[in-house]
User: Fold this.
Amino acid sequence: MRVMVIVKATEDTEKGIPPTPEAMEAMHRYGEAVAAAGIALVDGAGLLNSSQGKRIAFDGAKVTVIDGPFAETRELIAGYSVWEVKNMEEALAWAKRWPNPPSGQSEIEIRPLFEWQPTDETFAERVL
Amino acid sequence: MRVMVFVKATGDSEKGAPPTPEAMKAMGRFNAELHNAGILLMAEGLQPTSKAKRVAFEGPGRMVIDGPFAETRELVAGFWLWEVKDMDEAVAWVKRCPNPMPGPSEIEIRPLFEMAEIEAWLPPEVLEKGADRVQRWEALHAQEAAAAKTTALDVDL
Assistant:
């Protein structure tokens, strides 16, 4: 099954404070360990803070554009990975090992993706 | 530049209510336009948060929280990954999107960090150690970009 692993924002990520070299190294080691465990990284990236983002609100025929930054920091997304895993337990076990600064607080959300049958459909067939 | 385009959840999506056939068709047409314009890299739907878990980190502590989660309008129900020229192009496409939900809804556009920005943060010795990983990362995104540039589809939906 595929899951989206969502790393939630913190005050630091929203301020655009870059990770320390130590944190980047820990992330690198973690990525290697996940790959070595046979979990396929389908995709993954970090998001610029929400000051660079936009929201578009739909209400009936009305469409409104709202500029970032957005207020509810702890609900925002700072980064994501899409993993191919055996089950939720495996995803959870690896999410728990995500490198976290020793004194920091953060949250990760694991969300199963809808799977499309048959699984050998091409990308285009799936989304059209 | 690459952007994540998040479709935010609503009461309907959190209940697991499937979209109507008309809504599916309208979204299919929009996806075909995105694909033919060469900007569509990924499109996925997320199952309702009743199927999800959260891990809360506090120092060395890890606490697992089972879904569903309460703050519905802040949750994500689906996403696209797009390759666009700039934010203006992304906003223009989102404005053309059929309302993804039966009622009021929201879509959020977030630019991604690209390798150049990450490299600017890193001392060279760390970069060197991670060189093979950087190469894999770049190969992954080259594959995505190639997938987006496949032959235009003649869809009649």
